[in-house]
Amino acid sequence: MLTLGDHRLEVPVVLAPMAGVTNRAFRRMCREYGAGLYVSEMVTSRALVERNPDTLAMCSFDAEEHPRSVQLYGVDPEVMGTAVRMVAQEDMADHIDLNMGCPVPKVTRKGGGAALPWKLDLFRSIIRAAVVNADGRPVTVKMRMGIDDDHLTFRDAARIAADEGVTWVALHARTAQQMYSGQAHWDAIGELVMDLDPLPVLGNGDIWTAQDARDMMSRSGCAGVVIGRGCLGRPWLFGQLAHALGRGPAVPDPTAAQVCEVLRGHAGLLVETFGEHKGCQEIRKHIAWYFKGYSVRSHLRLELAHVSTLAELDDLLGMVVDRDPDQVPQPELLGAPRGRTSRLKRVALPEGWLDSRTVAQAQMSAVREAELSVSGG
Protein backbone atom coordinates (compact mmCIF):
# COMPACT_ATOMS: atom_id res chain seq x y z
CA MET A 1 0.00 0.00 0.00
CA LEU A 2 1.22 3.50 -0.85
CA THR A 3 0.24 6.66 0.97
CA LEU A 4 -0.24 9.83 -1.04
CA GLY A 5 -1.13 12.63 1.33
CA ASP A 6 -4.57 11.77 2.68
CA HIS A 7 -5.06 9.10 0.03
CA ARG A 8 -4.14 5.45 0.29
CA LEU A 9 -3.35 3.47 -2.83
CA GLU A 10 -4.34 -0.12 -2.13
CA VAL A 11 -2.49 -1.18 -5.28
CA PRO A 12 0.96 0.47 -5.60
CA VAL A 13 0.69 1.03 -9.34
CA VAL A 14 0.94 4.35 -11.17
CA LEU A 15 0.07 5.09 -14.79
CA ALA A 16 2.94 7.02 -16.35
CA PRO A 17 1.96 10.16 -18.25
CA MET A 18 2.24 9.65 -22.01
CA ALA A 19 1.58 12.49 -24.43
CA GLY A 20 -1.50 11.92 -26.55
CA VAL A 21 -2.35 8.72 -24.67
CA THR A 22 -3.17 9.22 -20.99
CA ASN A 23 -6.12 11.52 -21.51
CA ARG A 24 -9.41 11.22 -19.60
CA ALA A 25 -10.69 8.48 -21.90
CA PHE A 26 -7.68 6.21 -21.51
CA ARG A 27 -7.46 6.82 -17.77
CA ARG A 28 -11.11 5.79 -17.41
CA MET A 29 -10.45 2.59 -19.36
CA CYS A 30 -7.55 1.72 -17.04
CA ARG A 31 -9.51 2.53 -13.87
CA GLU A 32 -12.24 0.11 -14.86
CA TYR A 33 -9.76 -2.74 -14.56
CA GLY A 34 -7.82 -1.97 -11.42
CA ALA A 35 -7.06 0.45 -8.62
CA GLY A 36 -4.01 2.67 -8.68
CA LEU A 37 -2.99 6.22 -9.48
CA TYR A 38 -3.76 7.48 -12.96
CA VAL A 39 -1.76 10.56 -13.89
CA SER A 40 -2.72 13.12 -16.53
CA GLU A 41 -0.71 13.83 -19.63
CA MET A 42 2.31 16.02 -18.93
CA VAL A 43 1.34 19.67 -18.60
CA THR A 44 3.79 22.49 -19.19
CA SER A 45 3.84 24.84 -16.21
CA ARG A 46 4.18 27.99 -18.31
CA ALA A 47 1.24 27.05 -20.52
CA LEU A 48 -0.83 26.36 -17.43
CA VAL A 49 0.00 29.74 -15.90
CA GLU A 50 -0.92 31.39 -19.20
CA ARG A 51 -4.22 29.46 -19.15
CA ASN A 52 -3.73 27.91 -22.55
CA PRO A 53 -7.13 26.34 -23.41
CA ASP A 54 -5.65 23.03 -24.56
CA THR A 55 -3.56 22.83 -21.40
CA LEU A 56 -6.54 23.52 -19.16
CA ALA A 57 -8.45 20.77 -20.98
CA MET A 58 -5.63 18.35 -20.22
CA CYS A 59 -6.12 19.13 -16.52
CA SER A 60 -9.74 18.00 -16.52
CA PHE A 61 -10.86 14.88 -14.66
CA ASP A 62 -13.91 12.67 -14.47
CA ALA A 63 -16.12 13.28 -11.44
CA GLU A 64 -15.27 9.84 -10.01
CA GLU A 65 -11.53 10.18 -10.65
CA HIS A 66 -9.79 10.25 -7.26
CA PRO A 67 -7.17 11.10 -6.41
CA ARG A 68 -6.80 13.54 -9.28
CA SER A 69 -3.19 13.56 -10.39
CA VAL A 70 -1.47 16.03 -12.71
CA GLN A 71 2.10 15.94 -13.98
CA LEU A 72 3.87 19.27 -14.48
CA TYR A 73 6.96 19.97 -16.52
CA GLY A 74 8.92 23.14 -15.90
CA VAL A 75 12.39 24.66 -15.91
CA ASP A 76 11.84 27.98 -14.13
CA PRO A 77 11.36 27.86 -10.33
CA GLU A 78 9.20 30.98 -10.29
CA VAL A 79 6.89 29.74 -13.03
CA MET A 80 6.70 26.29 -11.44
CA GLY A 81 5.78 27.83 -8.10
CA THR A 82 3.05 29.89 -9.74
CA ALA A 83 1.69 26.87 -11.59
CA VAL A 84 1.56 24.71 -8.46
CA ARG A 85 -0.06 27.51 -6.48
CA MET A 86 -2.69 27.79 -9.21
CA VAL A 87 -3.38 24.04 -9.00
CA ALA A 88 -3.76 24.30 -5.22
CA GLN A 89 -5.80 27.49 -5.02
CA GLU A 90 -8.20 26.42 -7.76
CA ASP A 91 -8.37 22.82 -6.52
CA MET A 92 -7.38 21.50 -9.93
CA ALA A 93 -5.78 18.29 -8.63
CA ASP A 94 -5.03 16.36 -5.43
CA HIS A 95 -1.48 15.39 -6.36
CA ILE A 96 1.34 16.99 -8.37
CA ASP A 97 4.05 14.95 -10.07
CA LEU A 98 7.11 16.69 -11.50
CA ASN A 99 8.67 15.48 -14.73
CA MET A 100 12.47 15.60 -14.59
CA GLY A 101 13.21 12.83 -17.05
CA CYS A 102 12.20 13.86 -20.58
CA PRO A 103 14.95 12.62 -22.96
CA VAL A 104 13.68 14.35 -26.12
CA PRO A 105 16.58 16.14 -27.90
CA LYS A 106 14.69 19.41 -28.46
CA VAL A 107 14.31 19.62 -24.66
CA THR A 108 17.71 18.37 -23.46
CA ARG A 109 19.67 20.51 -25.93
CA LYS A 110 18.40 23.53 -24.00
CA GLY A 111 19.02 22.03 -20.59
CA GLY A 112 15.54 20.79 -19.81
CA GLY A 113 14.15 17.36 -19.03
CA ALA A 114 16.69 14.70 -18.12
CA ALA A 115 19.51 17.23 -18.53
CA LEU A 116 18.18 19.52 -15.80
CA PRO A 117 19.06 17.43 -12.69
CA TRP A 118 22.73 17.86 -13.64
CA LYS A 119 22.34 21.42 -12.36
CA LEU A 120 21.73 20.65 -8.71
CA ASP A 121 20.93 24.21 -7.67
CA LEU A 122 18.28 24.64 -10.35
CA PHE A 123 16.81 21.23 -9.62
CA ARG A 124 16.54 22.02 -5.91
CA SER A 125 14.93 25.40 -6.60
CA ILE A 126 12.23 23.86 -8.77
CA ILE A 127 11.43 21.09 -6.30
CA ARG A 128 11.31 23.58 -3.43
CA ALA A 129 9.04 25.96 -5.35
CA ALA A 130 6.60 23.13 -6.02
CA VAL A 131 6.50 21.78 -2.47
CA VAL A 132 6.22 25.21 -0.85
CA ASN A 133 3.32 26.26 -3.07
CA ALA A 134 1.37 22.98 -3.02
CA ASP A 135 -0.61 23.94 0.10
CA GLY A 136 -0.10 20.52 1.63
CA ARG A 137 -0.82 18.55 -1.52
CA PRO A 138 1.67 15.73 -2.08
CA VAL A 139 4.41 16.42 -4.61
CA THR A 140 6.35 13.59 -6.24
CA VAL A 141 9.11 13.55 -8.85
CA LYS A 142 9.90 11.24 -11.76
CA MET A 143 13.41 11.17 -13.18
CA ARG A 144 15.89 9.16 -15.21
CA MET A 145 19.25 7.82 -14.09
CA GLY A 146 21.06 10.70 -15.74
CA ILE A 147 22.39 12.01 -19.01
CA ASP A 148 24.57 8.99 -19.82
CA ASP A 149 26.60 6.40 -17.93
CA ASP A 150 29.35 8.94 -17.28
CA HIS A 151 26.98 11.62 -16.00
CA LEU A 152 24.51 9.97 -13.63
CA THR A 153 22.30 12.28 -11.61
CA PHE A 154 19.63 10.14 -9.96
CA ARG A 155 21.21 9.59 -6.56
CA ASP A 156 22.16 13.24 -5.93
CA ALA A 157 18.87 14.52 -7.32
CA ALA A 158 16.78 12.04 -5.35
CA ARG A 159 18.46 13.03 -2.08
CA ILE A 160 17.72 16.68 -2.83
CA ALA A 161 14.09 15.87 -3.62
CA ALA A 162 13.80 13.94 -0.37
CA ASP A 163 15.32 16.83 1.59
CA GLU A 164 12.82 19.25 0.02
CA GLY A 165 9.83 17.19 1.10
CA VAL A 166 8.58 15.11 -1.85
CA THR A 167 6.30 12.18 -1.05
CA TRP A 168 8.13 9.71 -3.26
CA VAL A 169 10.66 9.46 -6.08
CA ALA A 170 9.99 7.43 -9.23
CA LEU A 171 12.96 6.29 -11.29
CA HIS A 172 12.88 5.28 -14.94
CA ALA A 173 15.98 3.13 -14.83
CA ARG A 174 17.46 4.35 -18.09
CA THR A 175 19.66 7.30 -19.00
CA ALA A 176 18.65 9.99 -21.48
CA GLN A 177 21.20 8.52 -23.87
CA GLN A 178 19.32 5.22 -23.83
CA MET A 179 16.01 6.89 -24.66
CA TYR A 180 13.85 3.73 -24.88
CA SER A 181 16.55 1.33 -26.04
CA GLY A 182 18.25 -1.57 -24.33
CA GLN A 183 17.25 -2.79 -20.91
CA ALA A 184 16.26 -0.81 -17.84
CA HIS A 185 18.78 -1.06 -15.00
CA TRP A 186 16.61 -2.32 -12.15
CA ASP A 187 19.63 -2.45 -9.84
CA ALA A 188 19.70 1.35 -9.89
CA ILE A 189 16.20 1.34 -8.43
CA GLY A 190 17.49 -0.85 -5.62
CA GLU A 191 20.34 1.59 -4.96
CA LEU A 192 17.84 4.41 -4.63
CA VAL A 193 15.68 2.36 -2.27
CA MET A 194 18.65 2.00 0.08
CA ASP A 195 19.64 5.66 -0.31
CA LEU A 196 16.22 7.09 0.52
CA ASP A 197 14.83 4.66 3.08
CA PRO A 198 12.19 5.18 4.46
CA LEU A 199 11.02 7.48 1.62
CA PRO A 200 9.21 5.33 -0.96
CA VAL A 201 10.87 4.73 -4.33
CA LEU A 202 8.84 3.63 -7.36
CA GLY A 203 10.38 1.77 -10.28
CA ASN A 204 9.75 2.27 -13.98
CA GLY A 205 11.11 0.57 -17.07
CA ASP A 206 10.50 -2.74 -18.88
CA ILE A 207 7.31 -3.76 -17.11
CA TRP A 208 5.42 -5.56 -19.85
CA THR A 209 3.53 -8.09 -17.72
CA ALA A 210 2.24 -8.38 -14.16
CA GLN A 211 5.05 -10.81 -13.43
CA ASP A 212 7.56 -8.15 -14.48
CA ALA A 213 6.14 -5.84 -11.82
CA ARG A 214 6.44 -8.50 -9.16
CA ASP A 215 10.00 -9.25 -10.26
CA MET A 216 10.99 -5.57 -10.15
CA MET A 217 9.56 -5.09 -6.67
CA SER A 218 11.17 -8.27 -5.39
CA ARG A 219 14.57 -7.52 -6.92
CA SER A 220 14.81 -3.82 -6.07
CA GLY A 221 12.66 -3.51 -2.96
CA CYS A 222 10.75 -0.60 -4.53
CA ALA A 223 7.43 0.35 -2.99
CA GLY A 224 5.51 0.38 -6.24
CA VAL A 225 5.75 0.50 -10.00
CA VAL A 226 5.07 3.06 -12.73
CA ILE A 227 3.61 1.61 -15.94
CA GLY A 228 4.19 3.32 -19.27
CA ARG A 229 4.49 1.60 -22.62
CA GLY A 230 3.48 -1.78 -21.19
CA CYS A 231 -0.19 -0.76 -20.94
CA LEU A 232 -0.50 0.58 -24.49
CA GLY A 233 -3.44 -1.24 -26.02
CA ARG A 234 -3.78 -3.21 -22.77
CA PRO A 235 -5.80 -1.33 -20.14
CA TRP A 236 -6.60 -4.74 -18.61
CA LEU A 237 -2.92 -4.91 -17.51
CA PHE A 238 -3.96 -2.88 -14.45
CA GLY A 239 -6.37 -5.62 -13.45
CA GLN A 240 -3.64 -8.19 -13.90
CA LEU A 241 -1.29 -6.07 -11.80
CA ALA A 242 -3.89 -5.74 -9.04
CA HIS A 243 -4.35 -9.51 -9.00
CA ALA A 244 -0.60 -10.18 -9.00
CA LEU A 245 -0.23 -7.85 -6.02
CA GLY A 246 -3.06 -9.53 -4.13
CA ARG A 247 -5.80 -6.93 -4.57
CA GLY A 248 -8.22 -8.25 -7.16
CA PRO A 249 -9.59 -11.19 -9.17
CA ALA A 250 -7.67 -12.88 -11.94
CA VAL A 251 -7.88 -11.08 -15.28
CA PRO A 252 -7.01 -13.35 -18.22
CA ASP A 253 -5.70 -12.00 -21.48
CA PRO A 254 -8.75 -11.28 -23.63
CA THR A 255 -9.88 -13.04 -26.77
CA ALA A 256 -9.93 -11.17 -30.06
CA ALA A 257 -13.67 -10.55 -29.63
CA GLN A 258 -13.08 -9.10 -26.17
CA VAL A 259 -10.26 -6.88 -27.45
CA CYS A 260 -12.62 -5.52 -30.10
CA GLU A 261 -15.18 -4.75 -27.41
CA VAL A 262 -12.60 -2.91 -25.28
CA LEU A 263 -11.24 -1.01 -28.28
CA ARG A 264 -14.75 0.05 -29.26
CA GLY A 265 -15.40 1.27 -25.73
CA HIS A 266 -12.18 3.26 -25.81
CA ALA A 267 -13.14 4.82 -29.13
CA GLY A 268 -16.54 5.75 -27.74
CA LEU A 269 -14.95 7.53 -24.78
CA LEU A 270 -12.59 9.40 -27.10
CA VAL A 271 -15.51 10.53 -29.22
CA GLU A 272 -17.37 11.58 -26.07
CA THR A 273 -14.32 13.63 -25.05
CA PHE A 274 -13.19 15.10 -28.38
CA GLY A 275 -16.07 14.66 -30.84
CA GLU A 276 -16.29 12.02 -33.55
CA HIS A 277 -13.73 13.47 -35.97
CA LYS A 278 -10.89 13.92 -33.50
CA GLY A 279 -11.94 10.94 -31.40
CA CYS A 280 -11.59 8.61 -34.37
CA GLN A 281 -8.25 10.17 -35.23
CA GLU A 282 -7.11 9.54 -31.67
CA ILE A 283 -8.10 5.86 -31.64
CA ARG A 284 -6.03 5.17 -34.75
CA LYS A 285 -2.74 5.28 -32.83
CA HIS A 286 -4.03 2.57 -30.48
CA ILE A 287 -5.02 0.04 -33.16
CA ALA A 288 -1.64 -1.69 -33.55
CA TRP A 289 -1.16 -1.77 -29.78
CA TYR A 290 -4.53 -3.42 -29.15
CA PHE A 291 -3.93 -6.13 -31.74
CA LYS A 292 -0.28 -6.84 -30.92
CA GLY A 293 -0.04 -10.61 -30.54
CA TYR A 294 -3.30 -11.29 -32.37
CA SER A 295 -3.72 -12.51 -35.92
CA VAL A 296 -5.53 -9.77 -37.82
CA ARG A 297 -5.38 -9.57 -41.59
CA SER A 298 -3.11 -6.82 -42.87
CA HIS A 299 -5.82 -5.12 -44.94
CA LEU A 300 -8.04 -4.87 -41.86
CA ARG A 301 -5.21 -3.40 -39.80
CA LEU A 302 -4.62 -0.84 -42.54
CA GLU A 303 -8.29 0.12 -42.76
CA LEU A 304 -8.61 0.32 -38.99
CA ALA A 305 -5.61 2.65 -38.91
CA HIS A 306 -7.53 5.07 -41.16
CA VAL A 307 -10.96 4.84 -39.55
CA SER A 308 -12.93 8.09 -39.58
CA THR A 309 -16.34 7.27 -38.03
CA LEU A 310 -17.64 4.99 -35.31
CA ALA A 311 -19.89 3.24 -37.83
CA GLU A 312 -16.88 2.43 -39.96
CA LEU A 313 -15.04 1.18 -36.88
CA ASP A 314 -17.98 -1.07 -35.97
CA ASP A 315 -17.97 -2.65 -39.43
CA LEU A 316 -14.24 -3.34 -39.38
CA LEU A 317 -14.23 -4.74 -35.86
CA GLY A 318 -17.10 -6.98 -36.86
CA MET A 319 -14.88 -8.46 -39.59
CA VAL A 320 -12.13 -9.14 -37.05
CA VAL A 321 -14.56 -10.91 -34.74
CA ASP A 322 -16.15 -12.94 -37.55
CA ARG A 323 -12.79 -14.35 -38.59
CA ASP A 324 -11.54 -15.73 -35.27
CA PRO A 325 -13.36 -14.43 -32.19
CA ASP A 326 -11.77 -16.82 -29.67
CA GLN A 327 -8.11 -16.42 -30.48
CA VAL A 328 -5.86 -15.35 -27.62
CA PRO A 329 -2.53 -13.54 -27.86
CA GLN A 330 0.63 -15.36 -28.72
CA PRO A 331 2.39 -15.90 -25.35
CA GLU A 332 5.85 -15.05 -26.62
CA LEU A 333 4.67 -11.56 -27.59
CA LEU A 334 3.10 -10.66 -24.25
CA GLY A 335 6.46 -9.75 -22.73
CA ALA A 336 7.73 -7.96 -25.83
CA PRO A 337 8.28 -4.19 -25.87
CA ARG A 338 5.54 -2.03 -27.35
CA GLY A 339 5.30 1.67 -28.10
CA ARG A 340 8.33 3.80 -28.74
CA THR A 341 11.71 2.24 -29.41
CA SER A 342 14.99 3.94 -30.16
CA ARG A 343 18.73 3.48 -30.33
CA LEU A 344 21.60 4.65 -28.17
CA LYS A 345 22.74 8.11 -29.24
CA ARG A 346 24.57 11.12 -27.94
CA VAL A 347 22.46 13.46 -25.81
CA ALA A 348 22.07 16.99 -27.16
CA LEU A 349 23.07 19.53 -24.49
CA PRO A 350 23.77 23.28 -24.27
CA GLU A 351 27.39 24.24 -24.83
CA GLY A 352 29.40 23.84 -21.63
CA TRP A 353 26.48 22.21 -19.77
CA LEU A 354 28.63 19.50 -18.23
CA ASP A 355 31.38 21.87 -17.05
CA SER A 356 29.67 22.56 -13.71
CA ARG A 357 26.92 21.12 -11.50
CA THR A 358 25.46 24.62 -11.05
CA VAL A 359 23.65 26.66 -13.66
CA ALA A 360 25.22 29.89 -14.91
CA GLN A 361 22.96 32.92 -15.22
CA ALA A 362 23.78 33.11 -18.92
CA GLN A 363 22.43 29.58 -19.39
CA MET A 364 19.02 30.32 -17.90
CA SER A 365 17.64 31.99 -21.02
CA ALA A 366 18.36 28.82 -23.00
CA VAL A 367 16.86 26.67 -20.26
CA ARG A 368 13.61 28.65 -20.31
CA GLU A 369 13.35 27.94 -24.04
CA ALA A 370 13.33 24.23 -23.19
CA GLU A 371 9.88 24.69 -21.72
CA LEU A 372 8.65 26.53 -24.80
CA SER A 373 9.87 23.59 -26.92
CA VAL A 374 7.45 21.18 -25.30
CA SER A 375 4.25 21.12 -27.30
CA GLY A 376 0.83 19.77 -26.44
CA GLY A 377 0.55 21.32 -23.02
Q: Any overview of this molecule?
A:
The protein is 42% helix and 15% strand. By secondary structure, it is α/β, with parallel strands linked by helices. It has 2 domains: 2-251 and 341-372, Alpha-Beta Barrel (TIM Barrel); 256-328, Non-ribosomal Peptide Synthetase Peptidyl Carrier Protein, Chain A. β5 (69-73), α4 (77-89) and β6 form a beta-alpha-beta unit. α6 (120-133) runs parallel beside α7 (154-164). The chain is globular, with a radius of gyration of 20 Å. The relative contact order is 0.15. The model has no long low-confidence stretch (mean pLDDT 93).
Topology at a glance:
Layout: E1 2-4, E2 7-9, E3 13-15, H1 24-31, E4 37-44, H2 45-49, H3 53-58, E5 69-73, H4 77-89, E6 95-100, H5 105-108, H6 120-133, E7 139-148, E8 151-152, H7 154-164, E9 169-175, H8 186-196, E10 201-204, H9 210-220, E11 224-227, H10 237-244, H11 256-274, H12 276-284, H13 287-290, H14 298-304, H15 310-323, H16 331-334, H17 361-372
Helix pairs in contact: 1-11, 4-6, 6-7, 7-8, 9-10, 11-12, 11-15
Name of the CATH first level of the largest domain: Alpha Beta
Query: How much is the radius of gyration in Å?
Result: 20 Å
Tell me the name of the CATH homologous superfamily of the largest domain: Aldolase class I
Look at the structure and give the mean pLDDT: 93
Query: How would a textbook summarize the main sheet?
Result: 8 strands, parallel, barrel
Low-confidence stretches: none
- Distance N terminus to C terminus? 31 Å
Give the spatial strand order of the biggest sheet.
Answer: 3-4-5-6-7-9-10-11
